[in-house]
Amino acid sequence: MVRKDNGFTLLEALVAAFILFLVITAMTLVYRGAVLTSNKAERSLHFSALVTPICEQIRAQIRNSPDQNKLEGEGVMGDVSYSWAAREDETSTEPDYFDPDHGDYIAGSRKFTLWTIHVVVKNGTASRQYEFSEMTW
Questions:
Q1: pLDDT band at 107 (very low <50, low <70, confident <90, very high)
Q2: Residue 95, SS3?
Q3: Dihedral (Cα; 45, 85, 56, 128), 10-degree rounding
């Protein structure tokens, strides 16, 4: 009986197809993970890029606020909305200083306040929370 080898057997073809399927599945999972990580990093960079200008706006609002008891607000910058609230942490007056012209100490008149500002930045369904300190006088 003469046997000719003209190709692959069914079993060889099935094993090769299974191995190919495993490789494709593994590569798909790796690619999907890379895309998800890239999207997450892009959102994080988008938020982080806007935090500094948002904080500058909040600082200006705190310094120019006539009502120092109610320090909260909200705003929009680009496609991001934000809300913030400030809490007074510490208050102090400037120290007495020596006036050489009159030869005695003069009581400080300025009031210093240390604030903790809590900011929530939202873009669609994603949101981030930030906190920073600010001093006003």
A1: confident
A2: coil
A3: 0
